[in-house]
Amino acid sequence: MKRIFSMLICLMLVTMIVSPVYAEDIGSEPAAVYENKDEVIYVNLTSDGQTNNMYVVNGFQVTEPGKIIDYGEYNEVKNLTSLAEIEQNNDEVRFLAEEGEFYYQGTFEKSQLPWDISIRYFWNGEEVNPKEKLGESGKLKIEIQVNQNEENSVFNDYYLLQIGVTTEPEKVKVLQSENGTIANVGEKEQITYTVMPGQDERFTIEAEANNFELAPIEINALPANIAVEKPDTEEMTEDITTLSDAIASIDEGVGDLQTGLSELEDGLGELNDGSSEFYQGIEKISASSNELTNASNEIKNALHAIDQSLSGQTDDVDFSALGQLRDGLKEMKEGLGTGQESLKPLKDSYEKSLDALETAIWSIPDSVLKEEEINSLLESNADPNIISELLKTYEAAKQIQYIYDETQAAFQAVPTALSQMDRSLLEVSGALDEMITGLDNLDSQSLLDGINQLQQGIRVLSSNYDHFHDGLVEYTDGIDTVASSYGDIDKGIHDLHNGTMQISDGVGELKDGTSELASETTNMPQEMEQEVEKMLEEFDFSDYEPVSFISDKNEKIRTVQFVMKTEELIVEEKEEVAEEAQQEQKSFWQKFLDLFR
Description:
signal; alpha+beta; 17 strands; nine-stranded mixed β-sheet
């Protein structure tokens, strides 16, 4: 009885299932209303990433029941929601759907995917077929290459791919995986990679395999239709504006420094020229000082000789030689007058040069750089060549100050000596005038009476000339000291000028750099805003409008997703394979009847 009842139920079910909904019945039904349609494309891949087979599950959100016409060139369709018939006519698919969710599956020929996927396996450095290494141990490397297929630009431009590789650490222990995110999923590890829209990527996994097996590699593609809000860049913009203003201020300061150094260079150039002329003049005076002192010594000795020749010999004086004496005294007076006239401009010129020299030398700052300050300067980011020249210039300037300070007394003694010489020459010249006047007023009767007066004048002249000669010797000694010391000062001034020129050139290059930097950063805040906008545009996919992957005739597409999976790499046992094969041989009715056995 139970068996008969089972048979009756089977007969009723068969009748219900095979009862067709005829085309004319579908065609006469009113059109259904649905809000949107979803497509999920399932792709089975080989182990190397090639397409094996693919099918789509179409889903409709029906709000009013009725007839739906969909499109797709399917080899086979299957109703996944009800037992209602689905009618095909070329690429047109018709079916009746009730209110709610309706799904049907369509199997179609292998179609070109929007991405070209390649998976390569290397075993101990050699490319292999992974199926040949199942159950073995060795060094494993997996390369996954994803390239965009330009024939499907809509999906390329808006879809991102997520690649998941799941391993069992006891069988595949991952050693290295660049750009991958590793997560523990129970006792397994999952490595996830992301391919952004429009990008080509290659990922590499290096691992140690032991009894090698690998779960299917899963690749999911879905639209990146996310709207990225613009971040608040006000604070960052203010900071960049402050930086830009600071760079502009630095450029302005370097410009002022360049101007100041240029003026200093010009001033030091004049000082260098004046110092060279002064040094040459001092050397000439020093070179002729021996001749000057020798000539003065001869005059001194001549005066002593005249004084001695007149002493005690008035009775035997040859008055005919007085004319020659008068001429000699007159020539001596003229020579002394010429010397006196040259002393004043020499003294004035020397004092002016000395004042200019002192002003330049004492204008050098007295501050002394400490060792830690010098080290800090050397360790800064400034140009080391400029720093080196600055330190050399600083040392030269301090050396000039030191030398001048040591020889300052000799420099300042020269004007005093020149003044003393001028007074002595004036006194000697006055005495010569008196002697010449006295000789002019002598006659043959009064010569004898005036000889004593002449003798007295010669004695006074000789005595005064002794003082003059001593002053002249001191003057020439001072000139020699100045000449020997001023060489170092002149060299220091020359080095200071050259160093300043090099610093000025370095600051000129620095000014070029700061000017370029200021020019490049003037519009930095605006450029930053533009770059942010550009980056947002690159990652803003909110303008994505879904289209059907199956047919461009399909409408109201809400989402299209791709679910791709490689075949599982596993060592199969023969008994399990045989059992599975036997189970696969059972038909639907056999399985159905098993429910009642």
